[in-house]
Write a structure and sequence with these properties.
The structure is a homodimer of 323-residue chains. Chain A is of the alpha/beta class and 323 residues long. Chain A contains 9 helices and 13 strands. At the A-B interface, helix 7 of A face helix 7 of B.
C-alpha cells in the first residue's frame, strides 16, 4: 500500500495526514502552529507527530510504504523549498522548510513544498476532477483568493516559484483596499471576506434594515450566513452573490485570455452556495470572453473534500514529483 | 547552410522570407494578401513566390538546406494549423492553412503555424533577447495589443491553441470600446491606436489648442508623431506616454501575478520612443506588483528587427518545433 504524507501549515494549526493513492486520508493528526517563531522546536514537533502517525498507520496496514512528504504553506516556494515572508506565520522572513525536514527525515528522498493554492490544484490533478486535463486553473476562495495554474500538464511556478497570484490581479482600479496594500484587487471583492464587505456595503447603500444580514456585525458575518440568507430569499444576500459572480467572472475572463484553460475549478467555502455563486460567475465569464472562448470553458466545483483538501493537495505534490 | 522559411500573413500583404540560423533574412519577397476570399489561388501564389525565392537562395548558396515553413497569421491556431475567424482576412471562417500548404510542399515535413504575437515570442526565444529564458512574456504594441507567453520553456497555447490574448484583458471596467466588442480592454488603451485615442482625449479635455498634435486629424495621428511631439516637449504627447505607461504597467502586473516571468519584452512601433514609454511602464509595473516581485522583472525592448520580426518569428517556429 503506497502512501504519501501531506502537511498543511495554517496560521493556527498544522495538519499532518497520511494519504492513499485514491486521495483518501488514512489517518491524520493536528498540532498548533507556534505563534512565536521557534522554528527548530516546531520542526521537532512535526517530526514527533509524523512519527507517531506513521507508527499508527503501519500498525494498521502491514504493507504501508510511505513515499515522501508534501507540504502546503502560505508563500511556499517550490523551487527553493522555502516559506518566504508569510504574513500569518511568525518565523523568520525566509524559512528553509524542506531542508529542515530533510535533516529529520533522511529516509524520504522526496520532500517537496508549494503554496496552498498550488497544492489544491495538484490535488485536483492527481485525485480530483482534473485528472485528464493538461490546461486548467484552480481558484481558491477563502480568507483570500488563491490560484494554481496548470499549463501543458505542469504547474506554473514561474521564474522564481511564486507564480499564480491571481487573487492580486486588478479588478477595479482605485477600488477596495486589498490586504497586500494595493487597491482594487480581486481578493478584496471575491474572497469570503470580500463577500462580507459587499454585504455590508449593500446594506449601507440601501439602508436595508429588513435584511437578515443587518442583524449581524461585520465581524460575525461569513459566507455561509450570506448563503443561508440567500436561500431565505434575502435580497441583500442574493445581490452579494450576483455581484461576487459578476466580478469573479470578469476576472476569470482575464485568466482565460492569458491561458485558455480547459476548465476552471473553484474551491472553498463560498462554492457550497452552488448555483447562487456559479450561475452569475459563469454568465459574467461568458459575457467577458472573446467569441472564440465563449461557452467553451467549464467552471466546476473542486472535487476535493473541503476539510481534507489542504492535506490531500500537499500529499499529491509527492505523486506529481515522482511521476 | 540550414535555413527556414517564415511567412507573415498580414491584412494587406503576405511577406515570405528565408531566414538563417542567426535569425537574419537571407532573401524575401512580398505578395498581396487577396481581399476576396479565393484561398486556393492564394496558396498557389504563395507556392509560386516561395519556389522562386528558394531558387534564388539556392543559386546564391549551394549548400542551402530548407528545413521547413513557419507561418504567422492573425488568429492562427498552432494545434490545428488553421486560421480561424480572422477579422482582417477575407477567407472562410476556418482555413486549414497548414494542410493546404502541405499539399503544395510535400518536400517539407515541418510546416507549422501560430498567431503573430506567439511567432514574435518564439523569435525572441530562438534568435533574440530571450535565448536563455524559460519563463517570459512578449507584448506586441501595434494596431492591437498581442501577447505571447512562455512557461517552462514552452509556448502557452492552452487547451485550444488560442492562449495569450492579453490585449483583451480588462483594464478599466466599463471603459473605452475595444474592437472585440467588450469595453475597457488593454488594447483600447495601450495599442498604437489606443495612444492616438489618449492624445485626442487629452486635447479635448484640456482644450489644448497649442499642442502640436492639435493640428493633426484623428486619422492622421500615429504613435511616431506622438513620440516626435514628446521629444519637442509637447505636454499632451508627454502625458500620452505617461498614461500609456501607467496603464500598461498596471496590466503587466496582472500578467506577472499570473506567470511570474523573468522578463517582459515589448515589441512594436511605440517601443521606439524608448524612455518615454519604458520609464512610466516600469514605474507603474512596480507600483502594482506584490512585494515579492517588485523590481525583479526586467522590462526590455524586443531585440527583433521591427521590419523583419514577423517573418523571423514565423521562421523561428520551425526551429522551435524541430528541437
Amino acid at each position: 500500500m503506497k502512501l504519501t504524507v501531506g502537511i498543511d501549515i495554517g496560521g493556527t494549526n498544522t495538519a499532518i495526514g497520511i494519504v492513499n493513492e485514491r486521495g483518501e486520508v488514512v489517518n491524520k493528526i493536528s498540532i498548533p502552529t507556534p505563534s512565536h517563531g521557534e522554528i527548530e522546536k516546531y520542526i521537532d514537533e512535526i517530526a514527533q507527530a509524523l512519527n507517531e502517525l506513521s507508527e499508527r498507520v503501519k500498525a494498521e496496514h502491514r504493507d504501508a510504504e510511505i513515499l515522501g512528504i508534501g507540504v502546503g504553506a502560505p508563500n511556499g516556494n517550490f523551487y527553493k523549498g522555502t516559506i518566504e515572508y508569510a504574513p500569518n506565520l511568525s518565523f523568520d522572513d525566509i524559512v528553509p522548510f524542506v531542508d529542515l525536514l530533510k535533516k529529520k527525515f533522511t529516509q524520504y528522498e522526496t520532500i517537496v513544498l508549494t503554496n496552498d493554492a498550488n497544492a489544491a490544484a495538484i490535488g485536483e490533478m492527481i485525485y480530483g476532477g482534473a485528472k485528464d486535463m493538461k490546461n486548467f486553473v484552480m481558484f481558491t476562495l477563502g480568507t483570500g483568493v488563491g490560484s494554481g495554474l496548470v499549463v501543458n500538464g505542469e504547474m506554473v511556478y514561474g521564474a522564481d516559484g511564486f507564480a499564480g497570484e491571481c487573487g492580486h490581479t486588478m479588478l477595479i482600479p482605485g477600488g477596495r483596499k486589498c490586504g497586500c496594500g494595493i487597491d482594487g484587487h480581486l481578493e478584496a471583492y471575491c474572497s469570503a471576506s470580500g463577500m462580507k464587505r459587499t454585504a455590508i456595503e449593500i446594506i449601507a447603500r440601501d439602508n436595508a434594515a429588513d435584511s437578515i444580514l443587518a442583524y449581524k456585525t461585520f465581524n460575525e458575518l461569513d459566507s455561509k450566513e450570506i448563503y443561508e440568507a440567500a436561500v431565505a430569499d434575502d435580497k441583500v444576500a442574493i445581490e452579494v452573490f450576483e455581484k461576487t459572480g459578476h466580478w469573479l467572472g470578469m476576472s476569470l475572463a482575464d485568466t482565460v485570455h492569458h491561458l485558455s484553460p480547459e476548465a476552471i475549478f473553484l474551491f472553498g467555502g463560498p462554492t457550497a452556495a452552488g448555483d447562487y455563486i456559479f450561475k452569475p460567475t459563469i454568465e459574467s465569464l461568458n459575457n467577458h470572453l472573446l467569441p472564440m472562448f465563449k461557452n467553451k470553458i467549464e467552471v466546476k466545483k473542486s472535487e476535493l473534500n473541503l476539510g481534507d483538501a489542504a492535506i490531500v493537495g500537499a500529499s499529491a505534490l509527492v505523486w506529481k514529483t515522482l511521476v
